What we know:
This is MBL fold metallo-hydrolase. By secondary structure, this protein is an alpha/beta fold. The chain folds into 2 domains: 6-277, Metallo-beta-lactamase, Chain A; 296-448, 2-Layer Sandwich (Nonspecific Lipid-transfer Protein, Chain A), CATH 3.30.1050. The chain has 13 helices and 24 strands. The strands form 5 sheets. The protein has an 8-stranded mixed sheet, covered by helices on one side. Helix 9 (308-326) crosses helix 10 (383-391).
Amino acid sequence: MTQPALTIARILHAGYVFECAGTRIAFDPVFENPFSRNCHAFPDVRFDVAAIRQQRFDAVFISHFHDDHCSFDSLDLLERSTPLYIYCVFDELFEMVKQLGFTRVTPLRLNEAVQVGPLRVTPREAMDAEVDSMFQAQAAGLNVLNVVDSWIDDATLAQLVAQGPWDMVLWPFQTMREIEVLAPTRALAAPPALPEHWCGQLQALAPRYVVPSSCQFRLEPWSWYNRAFFPISYALFAREVAAALPRAQVVRLDPGVAVRLDGTSLLPAPRLAWVEPVGPQDVDYAYEGNAAPPPTAQIARQFAALTPLQQARVMHFCLTELPARYAGTEVAGDYFDVPRVWQLTLYDAAGTPTQLRYRLAPGEPAALDAAAAPVGWSTEVPAAKLYAALEEGEALTSMYLRINDMVFDGVTERALADADVVDDPLIRCLFGESFGAYQAAQLRRLLLVR
């Protein structure tokens, strides 16, 4: 007699299809390559868009609003009657999803289960509950924890241990250095090792199977980030987890690959036909510390030149909008609690710089002053990426900002030792109060083509 089973197939990054007894649900489905503008599938795949449009899911669950988990270009491929269950504390996202045409959109509540046929899905609390959630999926007597890409605190870990035993844990295995690459000359190279608490948490959960999850992408082929962004390889993860959990099996699921999980075994299952492998699939990450970043001028040459209207948009922001916005921004540290001079340098597609200097004081608009000196903070950015952030919802991790890549006077250098990179004035003015800019830009474009 065949045991009850759950089929689990990887889409990409944190995207999965779970199937049990004819019921199919998807988690964080992203059907794009690249996604989030510059995240290229690793290993490489091609999505059969026509075939995806024919797929029918009994429900789709989205863990949080970040664009690598909730992309309107991907949702646009789905039948509009598909029930969407979304964890998000911002009402604006639900309104946008409804504008896209979905008619069955339900906010998820932590620890409140959703039953879809034989599948029971319960959102669990992540460390940053205002942003993330995790998913517990139960079916056929099996218990799977999808950690997505969140962190787990001690209280939640105790609750999850009490929910065991666990058959499988989908664990976010890659510690991406999103902040460190913004100021590489001031960041220490991360050791190529798992964070200390990971193995202890996995030991407490004691799953039968561990899947390295929530990554599977690289940046543009020319990007120095590919050598500095991803410290952990699949091989390292498998080796360290296997040593910490000798009774567990580490299972790599590449895009499109599927497995059949039952109470005693894990066997291969037919792959997702609409996720087509391209080139070698047995690839791994290579980390080289801070990886000798090229000048921002060189990076800027990788992007298309702005049109005159686009350039005017960028300059209007820098000369008019940014100074006014600065007055309302908040900082985490105290570096900007005293007046500072900030130098912002924009690079065009030829690598030519345009340099602006601002006098900054707490609670006041930024004041343009070409002669202001000495400089106490510097930001460099390709003009094309600043335009994309303003009009297309570009995320911080793909803008190629370079912060404080210069030597300041001694007093400033000592003060900068305790400064927070994300207190950067441009970051605050672009992202301090924005929500869903990427999805809003997608929605505008998708509605225009209808």
